[in-house]
Specification:
single chain, 263 residues, mainly alpha, 10 helices
């Protein structure tokens, strides 16, 4: 029961009105963009499958998912420090790792649910509901779940280990994850998003040229190296569990103090 109370308390903090408003905006943006695209573009350039692929990968996977993970993942500890509630949190009669684990599970839930709702609404705007199984929506939801778990664990580790983790998390998302996969050679293997693309049913490596005028579809292009799906699973789960265990260990032994400049 104590673990349930820890989870519910963390969930209450995650669904404050201001955060819900931001979540609503992130949910609404992809389906709204899909509707605008399908109505404004010529019929031959507005195929539902192309619109869905472009918006789902170019916006939901490449932006919404990692940005939510970096904000919520790094904020698990840093918000307690900046809000000067870290001492109260650490004096609760629970092992530190259980407190952090409960907050992490809420983080993963939020990071998954928001883009999942968004991608479902996007699919509903482009396809008949009876065809959702055919277009791979369930595969995309699975990839979102794996991505939410992996990214959240990685940013949780950053948040427990270093000060001002949000800055480094944003550099990772908009620097490393965005541009390293586009470098020549094997650099693509150093990106978490590469392995999420491999798990997706749409990201089969081939020689089909990507449309040059479509920035979203170009950014969501599959990696130009052959990566087996089993290897993608292994890499993602390894990163996730190593990061989570590392964060739990660090949080259990590290001394934290509220920031004096938080006001």
């Amino acid at each position: 029961m104590s673990d349930v109370l820890l989870f519910l308390n963390a969930l209450r903090d995650a669904v404050r009105p201001r955060r819900l408003l931001i979540a609503a905006l992130l949910i609404a943006l992809p389906p709204l963009l899909g509707i605008i695209w399908s109505t404004a573009a010529p019929r031959e350039d507005a195929l539902p499958s192309d619109i869905y692929d472009s918006v789902a990968f170019g916006l939901v996977f490449l932006f919404t998912l990692p940005i939510l993970a970096v904000v919520y993942g790094t904020g698990v500890v840093s918000q307690e420090i900046e809000g000067r509630t870290i001492l109260y949190l650490l004096t609760r009669p629970f092992p530190r790792w259980r407190i952090l684990l409960a907050k992490f599970l809420v983080c993963v839930l939020v990071v998954f649910v928001i883009p999942a709702i968004s991608i479902l609404l996007l699919a509903f705007t482009q396809f008949n509901p009876a065809r959702l199984g055919e277009v791979g929506i369930y595969q995309d939801l699975m990839v979102l779940a794996v991505g939410a778990f992996t990214y959240s664990a990685l940013f949780l580790l950053i948040g427990t280990a270093i000060p001002k983790p949000l800055t480094y998390g944003l550099l990772f998302v908009f620097g490393w994850e965005t541009w390293v996969p586009r470098l020549p050679g094997q650099f693509v293997r150093a990106s978490v998003m590469t392995y999420l693309r491999v798990l997706s049913s749409r990201n089969v490596v081939d020689d089909t040229p990507q449309p040059q005028g479509n920035l979203l579809l170009s950014l969501s292009a599959p990696p130009q190296v052959e990566i087996p799906m089993s290897q993608a699973w292994l890499i993602l789960l390894t990163v996730a569990f190593v990061s989570l265990i590392g964060a739990l260990v660090i949080f259990s032994v590290k001394e934290y103090a509220p920031r004096e400049d938080s006001e």
